[in-house]
Amino acid sequence: MPLSGLWHHRQDLDPERSLKGYLVRITRNLVVDTLRSRKADCLPLVEEILEQETPLETRLEQKEAVRRLNEHLAALSPEDRELLLRFYYYNQRTAAIARELAISPGAVRVRLFRLRAQLKKSLEGEEPQ
Fold this sequence. Notes:
7 helices; Arc Repressor Mutant, subunit A; mainly alpha; single chain; RNA_pol_sigma70_r2
């Protein structure tokens, strides 16, 4: 049992750190082990469900939107692309992005605002600036 293992190895635990990290890791490992043991009973992927439930026309429109989004991202400067990915893909907060990129949080917000406007124009059929 993992929690009993935690008790038996309590002398190895760092008293300066909270138990939260250890408990999160144990819980994660238990969930992964449980999912592995139930491989046959797993639910289908979200993508598979969406493909089954959405009409062909809608799926084609979604694929076209993704293609155009990728084109727009490829046309951005590496700095702007990194900013968008950090905020929208990695879910970093503007303060963390600002700290890591050595710019102000306000500058991050302004750049994100401008990039969103640029993206909107691009996806509505206008060329990015």
